[in-house]
Amino acid sequence: MSSPLETPQGDSAELPISTSADVMISAKGLTKRYGEFVAVAGIDFQVKRGESFGFLGPNGAGKSTTMRIIAATLTRTSGEITVLGKDPEKFGPEIKAHLGVVPQADNLDNALTVQENLYVYGRYFGLSKSFIRGKIEELLDFAQLIEKRDVKVEALSGGMKRRLTIARALVSEPEILMLDEPTTGLDPQARHILWDRLFRLKEEGVTLLITTHYMDEAEQLCDRIMVMDNGSIMAEDSPAGLIKTYSTKEVLEVRFGSERNNSIAAQLEDMATRIEILPDRILMYADDGEALLHNLREKGLHPNTSLVRRSSLEDVFLRLTGRTLVD
Amino acid sequence: MTTTLDAAKSMHRTRQGSLKIVHVDRIRQWGTYYVAEARMRIMLKFFWSVLSTAALNPVLYLVSIGIGVGKLINTHSGGVDNVPYLTFLAPALLASAAIQNAMDEVIFPVMEGFKWNKTFFAMNATPLSAKQIANGVFLAAMIRTLFSVAIYGLMIFLFGGFTSSRGWLAIPFGLFAGASFGAFIMGLAVAAKNDDTFFMILGRLVIMPLFLFSGTFYQLSTMPLFLQWIGWLSPLWHATELSRLFTYGHHISPIMIVVHFGYLIAMMIFGARYTHQQFEKRLSK
């Protein structure tokens, strides 16, 4: 009976923001409806201090909606949620004081310079001018924007804007950093820089909440992943745990040409643990991909191309939802 | 031994955490001013254009209408309302400049904050309340308006438009008009679905007739009754009447004094409520 969810509503009003509790966020039966449409369909989850927690799912899965409910900017239809031990609907400012929010689309002040953006945002948190001044130096260094400090935001590249948005969210030294699709639209190099920065924050003990539809991002950054589809939780575990439960060790990808893929699939079914037929290729799940390919050839089946790879979260998602996770 | 890495690390202060450094009570008390401070910072980027518009606009009006048309009127009928034409005209011009300034400074930030840059959503992720965001933007708009009308007042003074020592009272009454109308327009700007149509309708069908039919250039009573209603609805007319009363002793019945004040105060209160409501609605969507 120690779950914060079971605290009677009347009591939570007197409790201060929980400073030592291990559970940072706790949701039970969390639901959001827009008329007939169910955006979040009664989900349960908990996020612990220092954890890096990922919401993985395609567009429209309910990830951003869930994030906004946590961030106290959207009200829920039903269910329970506490953030730092408090109900976001009743204690919006108290909770927001400890969140750093990085939205899907950068909403920086284009008329202001890089450092002015950090400055005004620090002021919104009621931080003293002298504190912010010191903090700006640290954040410019963190975001690799020192030489851009006096440049107006509109002149920055996409990757720089993204880093500035993250730096801005850190000005108040938040307990929880929430990142909605942090690297969507960035080139590979910019993504890796960002991942490195986020990893450092994790090492500092900041709790990270990340939504993404990139499997590699989820694998890189998250300790625990909640796979969402159509507002529901399909599975929840560590990246390795998800792969272990929902996929085989390896995957053999074969192409027989788009005409033959379907007709040949029937012959492949019994050879692998499981197969998935995609428009352009067939995925064959097995613990030993090379051995499977060898068997295939022995049977006289010669794919145009073949590839053996390790299972990824992409395969988990395909297994759970029957769909791929492409943009 | 100090490595470069250690040196880099020592530059970073130890993390204290938001639980120690962010105080919600302080934000509750000062949030409006933080928002206004940020807005002022943006306005200062455009300081020279704000200043030159503020100074040039009155010069053009005062020269062309105040002096040009004024000379015609003064020669033919010895002024309007028993005072030189410029004295009659000045409070109205000043109030209409205040309305225009207040409008600019509430409409554009609202469009920027909700639509163009979405900066209000960034503010909404902080402990600031929707009301504080709205009030902060409004407060900054009023400071800019005060600055502009003060310059307008100075220009009128230099052109000899203040014939009494109470002429400067046109400034607070101008600001009053700007605040009433601005509070209301701000809410409308939040509610506007399509900015292009909104600006077009507002500029052509609302602001222009208000400016022309609010007893700005002549007394409202000279208009036929079926056109006078425009003036009655216009905050510009109500503010101008009061301003004329206080600056040169324009005659108004005590009841009408109450009506003018009442109308402007009601518009401001209703406008503020409506704006707060619209901000809360849009930020929680």
What does this structure look like?
The complex is a heterodimer of chains A (327) and B (285). Chain A has helices at residues 9-12, 63-70, 92-96, 114-124, 129-142, 158-169, 188-203, 215-221, 239-246, 260-268, 289-298, 313-321; strands spanning 23-34, 37-48, 52-56, 78-83, 99-102, 176-180, 207-212, 224-229, 232-237, 250-255, 274-277, 282-286, 305-310. Chain A is α/β, with parallel strands linked by helices and 327 residues long. Chain A is globular. Helices cover 79% and strands 0% of the residues of chain B. Chain B contains twelve helices and no strands. The model of chain B is unreliable at 1-11 (pLDDT under 50).
State the major sheet of chain B. Answer: none
Number of separate helices of chain B: 12
Q: pLDDT average of chain A, as an integer?
A: 89
Helix content of chain A: 25-40%
Q: How would a crystallographer describe the biggest sheet of chain A?
A: 6 strands, mixed
Residues in helix, % of chain B: over 70%
Would you report the number of β strands of chain B?
A: 0
Through-space gap between termini of chain B: 55 Å
Give a count of the beta strands of chain A, DSSP E runs of length 2 or more.
13
Whole-angstrom Rg of chain B? 23 Å
Oligomeric description of these chains: heterodimer
Q: Shape of chain B from CA axes?
A: elongated
